[in-house]
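Session log. Operator J.P. requested a structure for one protein chain; no other inputs attached. Running the standard single-chain path with token output.
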Amino acid sequence: MLRLSLVAVLAFLFSCQSSGSEEATTSNQTGTSASSAKESSARNADEPVQHIVQRTHAFSSDQNPDFFRLALHGNSITKGKVEFTITTQDGQKIYEENFPAADLEASMVYEMQSPTSPTVSEREAYIIKRMDDFVENTDFVSPAIAPNAPVQASFVNETTWKRIQANPKAIGFKYLLGKEDGRLLVYDSAQKKAVRYGSFGG
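Structure written below.
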């Protein structure tokens, strides 16, 4: 009788040990699977950088130049997206805009010498050139708004317009997207960021 009881106890202990081991294995497999999915998701989100351009120019201050940076992300140049940022010397991002690379390519239609469609290589070269030429000295104007210019409240309110207009040291920056979407940016000290205050082109 004692022998039978001992056998029963050993069988029970063995059963509990096996059950605990199975639970540990299942838990480890689930954790590994979740971790792999997260890493895979992160890899897909990180698109390669095709081209980077950085220029420095006085903008938010006439004393300390800011960093103008364009980074083209994507698996191809023609189908990529451009991240355009302006950052002060102390690391404060005062402007950020994202747009498709196609917005830089659009104006190519005005420069084509042949009626035939450009090759992929020609399109890529044009986009890269547009990025390289995006920030030039000729793209800046000071004062940003002439003293006698009438109020244009399409992008900023009248108070902001007049505040910028009253600052003779305010520096405007102009750039072109699409075929005729010309944009004007200026730093507004009250908002501590760059704002669009006008347009040019079509």
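Operator note: DSSP finds four helices and eight strands in the chain.
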